[in-house]
């Protein structure tokens, strides 16, 4: 395949019938058609009218379901929506097969522009953290605050446990992996993902594990699943090599929105040592470190992340009202986690 040739991806009406995406009690799922993309959007009705809008952006291989626990915690604080990035969750591939960080950021911007809900409290995890950083840098008018959970920002020394994920970006590796793992069950795959992403896999409930297996089974039936994974991984690796104004760390420095950074001490994909660098890069930041958390703190410790998010909104509102709060520098805290 040449560098300009796009893979054939069947249109939505030609895709095989697969099981429907799970929608938790109290949630809604809708499809939003935009130029070049169709996005699936998950929402939970707010506890009352007039709450400020929030948008959640998932990581590589994830979906809007990754935010269900946090959305429920915050339904009395924000009017939240979670988007399935193109090619993930229940969103079909983008028409142009662009899975770069810029392509995903463009999808988020198109959705925010079309919904006219901005500026929003933007929340991103992993790949979604890199995407959200770019959105906040290039369209500050759309972002009121920024919350990043283990954002996938460039690291000089990548953790050994993160190397296999990065190798997905290498041409041919995904094909080899799929052939090597063709006999793996959905349950085996979920156990592997859980062990990689959670600080303590034991925190996953039997019900949560069953739902994850059902979702994995559904995704493996999609003809574009591995293409979306591979191209998004490649887009992330390519973003790490960009210099100048498009460099992610340079864009982090341009973010004007008050920023909450959440890092897990047991994260096997994003180095915990990057927490302090991120706190210095984002000009108006606060840092929450969770020693027992892994890569998806919002799923492991939703109550703790929700409390830090509420504090961010409270301080931002006080600053808007003229309270004497600092607009520069960073604050950090380490939270203990209970059951």
From TrEMBL:
It comes from Streptomyces lincolnensis. The keyword Hydrolase applies. This is Hydrolase. InterPro entries: AB_hydrolase_1 (IPR000073), AB_hydrolase_fold (IPR029058), AB_hydrolase_sf (IPR050266). Keywords: Hydrolase. Pfam families: Abhydrolase_1. Residues 318-339 are annotated as: Disordered. The keyword Transport does not apply. SUPFAM superfamilies: alpha/beta-Hydrolases (SSF53474). GO terms for molecular function: hydrolase activity. PANTHER family: HYDROLASE, PUTATIVE (AFU_ORTHOLOGUE AFUA_2G14860)-RELATED (PTHR43798:SF33), MONOACYLGLYCEROL LIPASE (PTHR43798). One of its GO terms (cellular component) is membrane.
């Amino acid at each position: 395949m040449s560098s300009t040739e796009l893979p054939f991806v069947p249109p939505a009406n030609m895709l095989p019938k697969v099981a429907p995406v799970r929608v938790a009690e109290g949630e809604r799922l809708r499809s939003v058609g935009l130029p070049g993309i169709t996005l699936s959007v998950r929402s939970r009705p707010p506890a009352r009218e007039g709450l400020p809008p929030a948008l959640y952006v998932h990581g590589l291989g994830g979906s809007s379901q990754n935010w269900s626990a946090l959305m429920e915690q915050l339904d009395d604080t924000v009017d939240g929506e979670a988007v399935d990035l193109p090619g993930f969750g229940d969103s079909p591939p983008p028409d142009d097969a662009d899975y770069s960080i810029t392509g995903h950021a463009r999808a988020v911007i198109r959705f925010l522009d079309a919904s006219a809900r901005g500026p929003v409290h933007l929340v991103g995890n992993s790949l979604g953290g890199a995407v959200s950083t770019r959105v906040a840098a290039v369209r500050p008018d759309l972002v009121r605050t920024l919350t990043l959970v283990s954002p996938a920002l460039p690291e000089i020394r990548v953790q050994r446990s993160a190397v296999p994920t990065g190798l997905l970006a290498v041409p041919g590796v995904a094909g080899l992996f799929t052939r090597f793992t063709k006999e793996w069950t959905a349950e085996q795959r979920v156990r592997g993902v859980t062990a990689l992403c959670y600080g303590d896999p034991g925190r996953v409930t039997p019900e949560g594990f069953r739902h994850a297996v059902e979702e994995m089974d559904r995704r493996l039936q999609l003809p574009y699943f591995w293409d979306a994974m591979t191209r998004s991984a490649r887009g992330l690796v390519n973003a790490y090599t960009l210099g100048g104004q498009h460099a992610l760390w340079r864009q982090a420095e341009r973010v004007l929105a008050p920023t909450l950074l959440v890092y897990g001490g047991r994260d096997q994909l994003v180095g915990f040592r990057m927490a302090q660098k991120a706190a210095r890069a984002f000009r108006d930041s606060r840092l929450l470190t969770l020693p027992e958390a892994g890569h998806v703190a919002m799923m492991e410790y939703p109550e703790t992340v929700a409390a830090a998010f509420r504090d961010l909104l409270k301080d931002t509102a006080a600053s808007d009202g003229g309270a004497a709060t600092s607009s520069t520098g960073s604050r950090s805290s380490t939270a203990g986690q209970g059951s």
